[in-house]
Amino acid sequence: MTAVSITEHQVTDAASGPYAITTGPDDALWFTMVHSGRIGRLVPGAEPASWQLDPGCGPTIISGGPDGALWFAEHRAHRIGRITTDGKVDEFPLPTPQAGPFGIAAGPDEALWFTETNADRIGRISTDGQVTEFPLPSTGAFPSAITAGADGGMWFTMNQANAIGRIGMDGRVSVHPLPTEAAGPVGITTGRDGALWFVEIAAGQLGRITSDGAISEFPLPDRAGRPHGIAADNDGNLWFTEWAGNRVGSITSDGSIETYDLPTPRCEPHGITLGPDGAIWSALENGSLARLAPSGDELPPPALHGHRRR
């Protein structure tokens, strides 16, 4: 097993629920706190800051936008939010009531694309807040995470339809059923190999789909680990969280898997990203962010004097 150093950086209390994480254009880590309705920011090695939204809005996935701001889905408030790197927040209600936005990612068209879990739709929002919605060909699909593909389309998981979907910039949707029944795909990202990599939370597997629809699946050593998020590093590897297994793992492009136990029991890892410092960072629902880097590349957590809240 590759030697990896893991450090946990407390950024909030355990009740706030750090959920998703991304690297912003300001070389800081930005993360959502789904239970307390806050957006957090951490420069590695410094103290965290956070901004309070509507406490019940349920922010889920967060992504950098083409305008230099961070965009996020407010799952319970049925809005899309935007926060600038200096903390100015704007929120945009969706046309469809109770849509339940969850995943969001920047597209190749200078807009943000997002999933509507309750409405079986994919949405598009321009940087000035104009929303367009595109219906999926099936009902009850529960579209979840979304990412920009190397082929110019947006690829997304269909958790309850057991499929991976693609939507083009013209709104045309194609659906690719998974070989494993009831696999429950959730997180998805684009790999350095140009393929889409995703996790199957119910099957305990990772998946890979090429732009022409060829699917490969890779069972995890612990099929009950409940993989949730996935992200690419700079070396062609994919890193993923195991929510129930209390682990973070990696997979090479040829399917070789390694897993790493997190130091704190029951910390519930969810989102994962490549950080501005070249390390892998994961959001833990116990109130921390975990940093994974090669041994010898440790970053000591800062001595916290209370979290700055704005």
Automatic annotation (TrEMBL):
The record's GO molecular-function terms, alphabetically, read: carbon-oxygen lyase activity; magnesium ion binding
Q: What class of enzyme is it?
A: lyase
The record's annotation in Pfam families points to: Vgb_lyase (PF24684)
Which Enzyme Commission numbers does its entry carry?
A: 4.2.99.-
Q: Which residues hold substrate? A: H228
Residues the entry annotates as binding Mg(2+): E268, E285
Q: Which cofactor does it need?
A: Mg(2+)
Q: HAMAP family, per this entry?
A: VirginiamycinB_lyase (MF_01282)
Q: PANTHER family annotated for this entry? A: VIRGINIAMYCIN B LYASE
Please describe what this protein does: Inactivates the type B streptogramin antibiotics by linearizing the lactone ring at the ester linkage, generating a free phenylglycine carboxylate and converting the threonyl moiety into 2-amino-butenoic acid.
Q: How does it assemble?
A: Monomer.
Give the protein's recorded name: Virginiamycin B lyase
Originating species = Micromonospora endophytica
